[in-house]
Every structure is written in structure tokens, then in C-alpha cells.
Amino acid sequence: MNEADTQWMSLALEIAERGAGYVSPNPMVGCVIVSAEGEKIGQGIHERYGQAHAEKNAVDSVSNSELLDGATVYVTLEPCAHHGNTPPCCELLAELPIDRVVVAMEDPTPKVAGKGIQYLRNHNIEVEVGVLKEEAEKLNEFFLHHQRWGRPFVTLKIAQTLDGYIAAPDGDSEWISGQHSRSLVHEWRSRYDAVMVGRNTTLLDNPRLTVRHVEGRQPKRIVIDGPLELPDELNLFTDQYEEKTIVLTHNQKKYREEADPMLNMLKSDYFRGTTLLVDEKDGHTDLGDALKELGKLPVTSVLVEAGQSLASALLRENLVDKVECFIAPKMLGGGARSVLGVGINHMSEIMEFREVEWKQVGDDLLFSGYF
Amino acid sequence: MNEADTQWMSLALEIAERGAGYVSPNPMVGCVIVSAEGEKIGQGIHERYGQAHAEKNAVDSVSNSELLDGATVYVTLEPCAHHGNTPPCCELLAELPIDRVVVAMEDPTPKVAGKGIQYLRNHNIEVEVGVLKEEAEKLNEFFLHHQRWGRPFVTLKIAQTLDGYIAAPDGDSEWISGQHSRSLVHEWRSRYDAVMVGRNTTLLDNPRLTVRHVEGRQPKRIVIDGPLELPDELNLFTDQYEEKTIVLTHNQKKYREEADPMLNMLKSDYFRGTTLLVDEKDGHTDLGDALKELGKLPVTSVLVEAGQSLASALLRENLVDKVECFIAPKMLGGGARSVLGVGINHMSEIMEFREVEWKQVGDDLLFSGYF
């Protein structure tokens, strides 16, 4: 690994991120091509799911193909080795007069898993693997988590007062965090596959969970409605993004009577979203099973914007991977708590975060930490 | 105001702070003397209550008194004009062959209040007032608060988890914050006149409230014990700093039977601290009256290290001036909350902080804000 390699890979990672939200369930990938003289001659990213891969876009961007002679290709993920929506990138690269391919990390997908790298080496191209590997893994943490565990990466978002309250005693929760914080949440919504809420929040706030304050892709919207009794007229079931709504229920009877896809379609004004039947656990929706079912769709990442009840249940079941908590410089001294009832009794069981970051966002502070 | 003035006053403020804790109930004062040629020829601070003032120490530090000819004296507070423990500083300065005195702020004490400045001007010394005034006011915010309101400046210290808990459900509160945070609290103890706790914390934790992890002056220790029923053997009533303990009660009967200073002295093993009788309000100790009585002692500043009950009561009564809140990167999801029950019902009543600061302390975050 040399300084130039790190620099070009860093650029490839930076541009890759522009595909956030749009390429899922694929990983974000960036590619930079550098001539034998050390000049950048092309770059490209995977822009949208189902469209061309980063390598193809980068190669197409090279205006003078003579410069490819002896060039180096930097790519943030191992070039694919299988025929999917596009032909294998390793074959595309092997046909070029390039000398060297630098790869940040292997693709863990079983269909690739080293085969792309092997293919290039078999065609006499020098391949270096592992340049900015950690950064590349961070960039695609949702994808990697989903690949490994079969369920989505779950981030719990909290917006609370200094003393840990998310609503005043009268139930009002608008607005504890400031405008900058709320805009940032909209940006996150555009990067996560889905936003999740529980019954109470859906009933109380009738949220839309759309991306509004910023440009970006609209997310899927997941409602945990165990008894399947939320009223039909709520925003999530009627607005222009109705098809992006996924309802999770454990009520077998109601699901079979009303929400089974076949029955649902027969109705005059049927729900155009998805209803999934998942397991029940102690009278509640089994959240572990819910995430497993979401993983199969596939949903690779979920931003939970729930209230106390669902947030605490997810924490209790160890299903939260990351917490993003806005702390407003205010105190309520009462009302709904951000988290209550996770089954901890002794100090020795305290949940500790790792990779903690604190950041000022407007007047608020943003805490980020992983479990 | 010129750059040199700001620079020398800044030094005077910096050295003044070394008297923190030791000079109370006097303000901290620093003094720097600069020759006509612009060289520093002396400096001094008010080091301990009852000892020499900053001006006297600064003048005494000048080795060659000829250099005083045409010199400028920088002092963070108006020189005193009255005979207290020491002769008036304005007279001391007026006798010197100096040209100019630069003062950061007037002394609001009725006995001074501009008289020191007037005295100097009457003796043909040029006086400039207001250089780094805000910084000087900040330095002595405890003193100024006490001068103005007659009660101590009250800082509420909280050490909580991200989700706002100060103890696990089983009652254990050791240790939520880290070692760095705890050391910083000991430093604060040495700067505040007194540390305050309630009945519950005193019974549960049997605290000492002394300065241990750092060098510094030991504070007074205030216990709010409304019914006057705490056991005699607790650390605060028996350790080597027993005389620094102040118990506040509203139980007139018990106070007259047991704790009145005259009766107390007759006992074989009498309590060498102070017991104060204060008003009752709705069956509890009237905290406003308690602070008024403390102000008379005088106690100019109180660091409250209380649990949920006393902390919330002080907030409810609007008696907290500043909050210092350590947030540990941990979650408990249950247990005692930092604040509960301050009488807020609607979002419009939310308590907002001003002059907010966020600071990393070890692994914890420290929030500071004023009401």
C-alpha cells in the first residue's frame, strides 16, 4: 500500500457514497482509473439498483482509451464474477490493457467471495486487496450486516431533552429537537431502506415518515401493528407512498380475514402496501422474527423512529445495532421517557456503547454509538 | 481600551482565579503592574480570605520602586475604599507615583460602589473602567449573584446515562460516570463554598463530599434533613470535617429539643457542625428559605450533588442557576431518573438553557448550561 493508492481509494470511497439509498440492496461501489503516468483518467459509481456497476461507468468515462495501457483501477469492492443484471465486471476489466487492480475489500456475497479477484489474477492482472478496508466496510455496514445476519442493520433514533424525555406529560412531542436535527433525520431516511414506527406513534402522531427537508430517495415505511387494528385512513396507508408501507402483524386471524395479499386485492379500495404475518411472542409481535422477515424482502437497514415502547422492546431483545440520540438543551422533568423497561436490574448489566461520537447539530448535541 | 490593556487584564484575571474557593465570601481579584516602558514589574492576587488584597501583594512584589513612576496598575475589581481586614487599597494606590489604573469592573458592594474609583480620580490618577468586564463578571459570578440576590449561586450536578438514569433499578449508582468526570467534581467541590445533598442520598450513600482526587480547599457540606432524623453516625456528622457540616431542618420541635446550638453544646458528644431551622412549605423544607439562610452565613455558592428528589424540588422552585450534567455513553433503561416532577405539563413550559457548552471528559460528555 502506498500513498497514491490510499489517496485514489479515498476518492473512490467518497464518490461511492453518492449511491446511498439508491443502490440498496446492493452495496455502494466507487471506481477510479489512474493512468500509468499517475493521472486520473476515469471514474464511476454504482448509481442505482439494477443499473450499471461502478467499474463499467468508470471505464465508459475514459475519453482516450489509449491511456488505459498500464493503468491502475481502484475499486471499493471486489469486482463481481457473476451474471446478474449486468455482465461480470471482472471480465470487463480483464479485457483491458491495464496493469493493476486495487480493491478495498472482498465481496462476501457467496457468488463472488474471491472469484472476481482470482479471475483477474488468472488473466495476469496484479491485484492488491485491503487498501482502506475498514473505511470500505464502514461505508457498506448495512450491506455487510445484512449479508452476515440475514436481518437489517437497525439504528434507533431518539430525540430527547437533557433529562431523557421524548414528550411532555400531556403527550406533546413537537418539537424537542431543533430544525437542523430534523433535517438530518430526513437525510438519514433517504439513506436507510426503511423507517420503522410502532402502533402508538402511528396513532398519536399520524406520521408520514417521508423525506421532505432534503433531496433524496423515499424509504419504505414499516409499522409494527401486532393486533392489526390501526385505522385505514392514516397517512401511511393512504398517501402517495402507500406502496412503500409494510405492516407487520402477529394476528393470524385478522391477517387471514383481511390482509392476506390475495384477499386484499379483491377489495374495492385495497391497501397497496405489504402486510406481513410474523410470529407472536408473549402476546406481542416477535421483533426478532419481524426483522428476519424484513431481511428476506430484502430490507438491509431500518431507522427506528419509535416511541418508548417499541424502542425499549428492541433494546430488550438486543436488536439495536446503533443509537443516534439528539439531546436538546432543555429539561421537561416529566413525561414519556426515551427508554424504559429493558430488563436491566444491576449496574453490571448496563449497556455500554462503542465507537462513540458526539457532534453538535444546531443547538442540539448528537450522540452516536454502536452496541 | 487598547490591545496592551486587554492583554494585561487577561493576565490579571488568569492569576486571580488561583484564589478560587480560598477567598470566599470575598471575590477573586488579580492585579498586574506595568511600568511606563510597558514591562511587567509586579503582580499579586487576593490569596485567602482575611489576608492582603491583590493590590497590596502586587505593589509589594515590585522590586525596584523607581519603576512605579508613571506605571499602570491593572486590577480585575475596583480597589476597595473601606477599612475592612486591611486598609483601603485606593489609598495605597493613590500614594504611588503611578499614572493610571485600569479596572475590569466596579465593586457592587455598597461600601465600595464607585468610591474607590472616585478616590483615585480625586488624586489625579487616570482611571479606566470596563476592560474585560464580562470576563471579570464571569470569574466572580458566585460573588455577584450572592451580592445581588442574597442567596448562593446554585449549580446542580448530575451524572447520568444517555437515557437519563442516575441509578440502576436495584438502587446502585456506582459508577455511572468515569474517573475523569469524578475528579472534575472534586475540583468543583474545592471551588464552591458548599456541597449540598438531601436525606435520601445521605442515607443511601453515606457520602463524605470531601475533596480527595485533587488538591484543594474542603467545602462546607449541607444536608437537607427536614424531619431531623438522620442517624448520628454518618460520615458527615463524625468525620474530621464535622465542623463543616450544616444541617437544615424544618422540624421546630426536634430542633428545640436537640439541635439548638445551646442545647447541643451540653451533650457529651455534641455535633460540632451547624444546625439551622428553616421554614416549612407543604410539609417539606422550604428550599427558598433554606438558601436565604445559607446566604446569611454567608454561603455564596452551592454545588448540589443530590438525587432525583432534591434535584427536582430545586428545579421546581426555580432555585437552580446552572446545570452541569455528565452523560455516560451507557443505557440503563430503568431505575432512578435524574429529574422527575418539576411541575411541567405542556411543551410551552419546557425549561431552556442558555450559554450552553458541551465538553468531552474522558469517555463522558459534560453538558453545562444556565437557566
UniProtKB/TrEMBL annotation, chains A, B:
GO molecular function, one term: diaminohydroxyphosphoribosylaminopyrimidine deaminase activity
Active site: 55 (proton donor)
Cofactor annotation: Zn(2+)
EC number in record: 3.5.4.26, 1.1.1.193
NCBIfam families hit by this protein: eubact_ribD, ribD_Cterm
Binding site for NADP(+): 159, 175, 201, 205, 307-313
Catalyses which reaction(s): 5-amino-6-(5-phospho-D-ribitylamino)uracil + NADP(+) = 5-amino-6-(5-phospho-D-ribosylamino)uracil + NADPH + H(+); 2,5-diamino-6-hydroxy-4-(5-phosphoribosylamino)-pyrimidine + H2O + H(+) = 5-amino-6-(5-phospho-D-ribosylamino)uracil + NH4(+)
Function (record text): Converts 2,5-diamino-6-(ribosylamino)-4(3h)-pyrimidinone 5'-phosphate into 5-amino-6-(ribosylamino)-2,4(1h,3h)-pyrimidinedione 5'-phosphate.
Transmembrane parts of this sequence: none
Cofactor binding note from Swiss-Prot or TrEMBL: Binds 1 zinc ion.
Cited CDD domains: Riboflavin_deaminase-reductase
Protein name: Riboflavin biosynthesis protein RibD
Gene from which the chain derives: ribD
Binding-site positions, substrate: 173, 189, 209, 212, 305
Gene3D superfamilies: Cytidine Deaminase, domain 2, Dihydrofolate Reductase, subunit A
Keywords: Hydrolase, Metal-binding, Multifunctional enzyme, NADP, Oxidoreductase, Riboflavin biosynthesis, Zinc
Family: In the N-terminal section; belongs to the cytidine and deoxycytidylate deaminase family. In the C-terminal section; belongs to the HTP reductase family.
Protein residues bound to Zn(2+): 53, 80, 89
Keyword Hydrolase included in the entry's annotation: yes
Segments forming domain CMP/dCMP-type deaminase: 3-128
GO terms, biological process: riboflavin biosynthetic process
Tagged with keyword Hydrolase: yes
Natural source organism: Fodinibius halophilus
Involved pathway(s): Cofactor biosynthesis; riboflavin biosynthesis; 5-amino-6-(D-ribitylamino)uracil from GTP: step 3/4; Cofactor biosynthesis; riboflavin biosynthesis; 5-amino-6-(D-ribitylamino)uracil from GTP: step 2/4
